[in-house]
Amino acid sequence: MLSSRQPCNPRDDALLRQRFTRFQRLRHSSHTALCLPQDLLLAAAFVSDAQYNRNIPFKTSPEAVRLYHLYNHWMMRIATYFFIFLNLSLALFEEPAVYPLPFLATSVLEVLCLLVFLGRLTHFAKVTLHNVFWKDTKNICIMVAILLSLTDLAIYGVLRMYDVRSIRWSRIVRPIFLINFAESRQIRRAFRSIRNTLPEITYVFLLFMFSLLMFSLMALKLFGERNLQTAEGLPYFRNYLEIVFDLYVLVTTANSPDVMMPAFDFSSWYTLFFIAFVIINTYIFMSLFLAVVYNNYKKHLKNEIRKLAYMKRRKMIEAFNLLKEEEGEQFVVREARWKQLVKLVAPDTSSSHRELLLCISDDEQKGFVDKKSFVQLADLLNIQVVTLRVRRHPLARWVPALYGSAPSQLLRRVVRHRAFVWTYDAIILINAIFIALDEESPYISYAEWVFLSLYIIEILLKVYTYEPREFFGWKFVWSLVSTVLTLKYNSQQILDIVFILRVLRLIRIVDSIQRFQVIMNTLINIVPTMLTFGGLTLVVYCVFAIIGMELFHGKIQYFPANSNAPHALECGNPALKDSLFARGKYCKNNFNNFASSFIVLMELTVVNQWHDILSVQPAKLYFIAFHIVMVIIIVNIFVSFILEAFFVEYSLEKSEVETAIERKIQELGMGVQEDELQYEQLLDNMESAEHELEGEGGTKPQSKGLVFKIASKRYRTVDALLQRMFEAEIPLEDEGLSFEEILNLSPTSAVPRSPSSESTA
Amino acid sequence: MLSSRQPCNPRDDALLRQRFTRFQRLRHSSHTALCLPQDLLLAAAFVSDAQYNRNIPFKTSPEAVRLYHLYNHWMMRIATYFFIFLNLSLALFEEPAVYPLPFLATSVLEVLCLLVFLGRLTHFAKVTLHNVFWKDTKNICIMVAILLSLTDLAIYGVLRMYDVRSIRWSRIVRPIFLINFAESRQIRRAFRSIRNTLPEITYVFLLFMFSLLMFSLMALKLFGERNLQTAEGLPYFRNYLEIVFDLYVLVTTANSPDVMMPAFDFSSWYTLFFIAFVIINTYIFMSLFLAVVYNNYKKHLKNEIRKLAYMKRRKMIEAFNLLKEEEGEQFVVREARWKQLVKLVAPDTSSSHRELLLCISDDEQKGFVDKKSFVQLADLLNIQVVTLRVRRHPLARWVPALYGSAPSQLLRRVVRHRAFVWTYDAIILINAIFIALDEESPYISYAEWVFLSLYIIEILLKVYTYEPREFFGWKFVWSLVSTVLTLKYNSQQILDIVFILRVLRLIRIVDSIQRFQVIMNTLINIVPTMLTFGGLTLVVYCVFAIIGMELFHGKIQYFPANSNAPHALECGNPALKDSLFARGKYCKNNFNNFASSFIVLMELTVVNQWHDILSVQPAKLYFIAFHIVMVIIIVNIFVSFILEAFFVEYSLEKSEVETAIERKIQELGMGVQEDELQYEQLLDNMESAEHELEGEGGTKPQSKGLVFKIASKRYRTVDALLQRMFEAEIPLEDEGLSFEEILNLSPTSAVPRSPSSESTA
After folding, report:
1. Are residues A490 and A554 in the same domain?
2. Do B197 and B174 fall within a single domain?
3. How far is the C-alpha of A725 from the C-alpha of A659, rounded, in Å?
4. Which one, of A553, A556, A560, A548, lies nearest residue A574 by Cα?
5. Contact yes or no for B203 and A523 at CB 8 A
6. Which of A34, A612, B12, B605 could form a disulfide with B16 if both were Cys (CB 3.0 to 4.6 A apart)?
7. Do A495 and A607 have their domain in common?
8. Which pLDDT score, from 0 to 100, does residue B612 have?
């Protein structure tokens, strides 16, 4: 691994040492183990002695570089996130509060947060060039948000002293900090994607509204004069605007079939109207929304990834151009320069590792690296390297005779066999069935002890069989802790939780079945991106929760089950007497504090009972706005994302997308898939020893058991997979696009040999 | 148009005449205006005098051919459909009936239907070769279904005579007739697509069930011992199977947030369990179902269409091979043979039309048609041909001076102007707003008369401006009828309906805006395929309705609002006292007859209030089965279909997919888009006169005003668009695949130069 723990040991002249120090200061990836194309380009500039300062958006004085590294330090980043979330969670403590704190405390905290943001921004301004800093809307946004928050806080504080209540309206700008600090790149990308989708969504929405208004007009004509009544005895379909709203709710299916029943009771034929309405609006238009969102999502995702791939290729080609020398008819990078470059950019690699890389890059041992191999260098440097070594069980060292005896070997073979794992999975399954069936019976608690002893036997057998260091992973610790917990505190609660977590082991059975692989891979791949959607949802929920609290605070009260308060059954609101809301015991669904608001908004996202929840709130526009933003846009983007993840995974299963590097490594027989490493059979003969061969360079790497650990297919994100697909398609000669052109690449612009025809997709 | 109305007039020798007669007898497309590749192949066989009998699955004796044409006669087809739907609608008249008929009447009708089906099948057997007939599972299915129905009917009848009630279980086989008669090709294709999707759906479903069972187990552990109660005072989350069912319903979102409220009331933290459940099961798994269904839908749609395109190409190449002669280095079809062929296959085309076709096929006037042009012949023959001619208004003939005067011309120009249409659209819009606002006010009814007179003025102006024959389309008739109706019966009802249909004219405004075109085209394109989904839904509903009636008939009764019957408020079922079902006045949602069952099933498809509707029915498995079949499979296929339609339309908007023919016609300047024909400006100078130039052949066709009418983009179905895309991609030399290979083409088999990379789609 290319971590920077081990200090570099440059045995070259003072110039190289000086260059190296300067390069180390300027490189981007000082805090990550990754080798970025940007760094390779910078290193190439140092190696070739070119004055290369382009594309460095920060100042290059030693002071500025030190500040820049401080800015990027992980502690600083975590601190920023901490204050962003502190600022957001202030809503929990401000009135209306979940955990009330005095106004002074929350305002001091808020000022503190704002000062931290201001400090972070100032820090950023110090490391960035002036014109770059002031051109960036992100920074302006943050400044405006800080100013607004402070002004609002001051006004509110002053008014409060004179006992005048005003609204803390600036609280809705707080999510801006989450969006606009440079670390939230993914969330900004998601917002950009939404912004790009908006025009097309708008056209569909206008058509949909047109259809809704037309149907409402028809409903007014058909039912308005029949004097029908709803189940609650209210007039049915009399007022045009109410019809529009009722039918809008029907699109969400929330009031089906209630909204239809009075007309249905009057005549069965009227159901035809509602059937037509549901087919056109709920099924066709809602699918169209999904189609538009999905189409745009795919288009912009591909565009962003294409940009990244082009950027990378471009930088690698620039680096090549800096280092190239003529060799026969082509330009190449000679071995000496190539080695200098690799040493500079990845000082921790062993020389044998370097030899191996050269062996892959310079396939035919010609003493130089051609352009095609050179552009893959960044990927090559990012592949993990491990060496294999056999490590023996301690018992085999202490009592070799006993441990090596035939019965012991048999026992170990049994434990290592797949059937052993399956047996224990079956035991867990039986345990699950036992518990699900009935838990009052005394036999069950007796059986519980049987199962517990079986689990302890499993742990002992595994300790006996496997080398402890490999087994002492979290799996083992977990097994041990859970068993100890169960033994010591035999309370039902802990037993249950322990047991449920044990049941999760059953996922492994499912996972081992070939047929489920595509689905499981999709599920695993979407986890990282789920965080982006989490952030997106958080932003939308925060804004709507804060507005909701201002609008609906205190309208509904929750009383515990046996409260004697007046109107306890009507949620403290006499107007709710006999309403479906009170009857369904929905009183806790209110906007009385930040946490409750979040839960109500979650319920509104699920859509059901929408109209019941909102029937007691006057502002229907608020709910329609939330539905449009959350359900029509964000949920559809989420669905699009899952669709795309599945399709990428599915197409990958059929046609392996390998880069040239991976293929070459496989050809040389030095590859090992991470998947394979998961099996105990392989693992217990291996050890991940890095830099084991440091200093022994020059020999054939194969003989040393050095292998490349290729990233498992299943832990690649959709983005990484797509980027790989695009890279394979960019022609090598493609130097035409400049950085500016790449950044301004529009989704529709024709790019030579677009990798996937979007025509029928 | 290539209809067969005008008898052919072969001026050739007796042999050709005899061949022609035999060909006419054997050709497939005798009842349609289309020229099928199959017919072209047959005609080529006759022209080349080859003994060509392959690929004719029916007997070729004159008697058999006559029977075959009778079998395919449109009257026979309509009769078959009539009896299929009569048979299906028998459920309306049988107990439990919507319109009760005596048992004797319905059984006589059913026997009649079955006899008709048997007759149709026998007819088919007579025209088909024996081994082909008996190999076809469709025919076996129909025979078994007839046998089962008759047996069941007999048993039921006999038992009824002895007053023993039994179940008419054979009623669920009735939809088999709808699926299996040869005319329902589309529905069978949809069923095939579902069958192909089932394995993958099953894997996702198993994973989903696994997740559901795990969450249920957790719920049992978390909430089972807290002694919580639901809003109705029932125990909450005690029994494992009930939890599984409740959580299954939560996946459909139908019981959200009710199912959460007791836990939420106990502690807000418990909502996290439900949030996790909804994210994983409702959002991720339901999206996965859509992904799997969509992926399979696309795969199989493309495969079927690829098969069709290959078939067509194959037949055209075989026809070419039958007719080819050597010319220089290549094989060609000489002009004489080509003309013979066209005359045979399309005897109604004028000779000028034939010249034009030859001019397109033999681009460089070389006296022969090469392979590339020949394979496009079928498409070429299917392009409509029209001639342009100016036709004058009757008034211009009667009072030319007055009609041609300056004010008259100005008036006509005004009426023809787009602004005139827009003005009237605006008037309708204002009228709509007037009505929506308030209809009790006297001003409104006064305004109604103003609007009515405006509409009459519109009609008069249009009659004055446009040539009557072109204006007397259904639009004019509709305007007239509606106005007359409004004048004569000034009842509010008719006025309303007339008005609503007038409001539909507003769609035209929307349609004329460029931005809405893709969406509108998608909406128009999906209409034909909607019928297939209608058929599919009908089949599923029929089966479930019949089962539902047997299971739940009479459990719930509906009483009119002021009924004095006991338990009228509880839907005639004391068990429903105080239930949400009775409170929501859902009594009419029952399985008491066929029509009600359909409406209940429709409500279950929409999913909402699912649990309320089914809480009174014991058989939960029935509802889960319906949910899986209807919502998870069919609705998802419907959504997939809309997604695909939108994507095809969208990609088409950007990159025009034209066949070589259309391009050539456009090059020759003889094309006219149907779109353009829609504008009145063009229409009133044109007349669709066919065969106008019959017998004048040999002259330059351009001078005659002969133009090709190219099908409008917007009325193409998704299938047609995709087929066109595939055709463009099949290489001309591709003769490798035999008919059998094409028919057995699997969706995953590699086809040379697959037109759309499915890799990232």
Report:
1. no
2. no
3. 9
4. A556
5. no
6. B12
7. no
8. 66
Domain end call among A651, A685, A711: A651
Chain B hits for A647, Cβ within 8 Å? 291, 295, 760-761
Task: Express each pLDDT in B660-694 by its tens digit.
Answer: 556 666 666 665 544 444 333 333 333 333 333 33
DSSP per residue, B412-464: HHHHHSHHHHHHHHHHHHHHHHHHHH-SSSHHHHHHHHHHHHHHHHHHHHHHH
- What does the block give as tokens for A361? 């890059």
Among B217, B292, B435, beta carbon nearest to A500: B217
Where among A141, A156, A183 does a domain terminate? Answer: A183
With 80 as the cut, is the pLDDT of residue B747 above it?
no
- A123: Cβ–Cβ under 8 A, 6 or more apart, which residues? A67, A70, A71
Asked if B288 lies within 8 A of A497 by C-beta distance, the reply is no
CB-closest option in B294, B506, B515 to A643 = B294
Over residues B481-498, the pLDDT tens digits come to: 666 666 555 556 666 666
Are B760 and A725 a contacting pair at CB < 8 A?
yes
Same structural domain for residues B647 and B533? yes
Please tell me whether residues A551 and A495 are part of one structural domain.
no
A142: how many CB neighbours lie within 10 A of its CB?
22
**Residue A492 shares a structural domain with residue A549:** no
pTM: 0.80
* Per-residue model confidence (pLDDT) at position B674: 43
**At which residue do the structure tokens 């695993």 appear?**
A524
A203, A302, A585 ranked by CB distance to B231: nearest: A585
What angle is formed at CA B271 by the lines to CA A619 and CA B240, rounded to 5 degrees?
A: 130
User: What long-range pairs does A335-343 form, CB within 8 A, spacing at least 24?
Assistant: A335/A362, A335/A367, A335/A368, A335/A369, A337/A47, A337/A48, A338/A368, A338/A369, A338/A374, A340/A16, A340/A47, A341/A40, A341/A43, A341/A44, A341/A47, A341/A377, A342/A377, A342/A381, A343/A8, A343/A10
Q: Please say if the pLDDT value at position A46 is more than 50.
A: yes
Residue closest to A670 by CA, chosen among A383, A440, A337: A383
* Within a domain: B331: no
Are residues A407 and A457 both part of a single domain?
yes
**B448 inside domain:** yes
Same domain, B84 and B158: yes
Q: Give the tens place of pLDDT for each residue, B34-83.
A: 567 777 777 777 777 655 444 455 556 667 777 877 887 888 888 998 99
Taking contacts as CB-CB distances below 8 angstroms, the residues of chain B near A240 are 436-437
Calculate the alpha carbon distances from A217 to A621, B427, B487 in Å: 20, 16, 22
Highest mean pLDDT among A608-622, A629-643, B641-655, B698-712: A629-643
Closest residue to A642, CB basis, from B287, B516, B757: B287
Mark yes or no for CB contact A646/B265 under 8 Å.
no
Chain A: nearest CA to B221, how far in angstroms?
A: 6
Q: Measured between alpha carbons, how far is B281 from B218 in angstroms, rounded to an integer?
A: 14
Considering only CB atoms, which chain B residues are within 8 Å of A262? 585
Tell me the chain B residues in contact with residue A504 when contact means C-beta distances shorter than 8 Å.
214
How many angstroms separate the CA atoms of B251 and A606, rounded? 10
Print the domain residue range for B433.
394-504
The span from the CA of B650 to the CA of A715, in Å, is 33
Would residue B716 count as lying in a domain?
no
Establish if B373 belongs to a structural domain: no
* Number of domains composing chain B: 4
Instruction: Give the CATH number of the domain where residue A418 resides.
Output: 1.20.120.350
Tokens 């909701």 belong to which residue? A548
- pLDDT, residue A701, reads 38
The domain that contains B622 carries what CATH number?
A: 1.10.287.70
The Cα of B516 is separated from the nearest Cα of chain A by a number of Å equal to 6
pLDDT score, position A115: 94
Q: What distance in Å separates residue B311's CA from the closest CA in chain A?
A: 21
Mean pLDDT of A697-712: 47
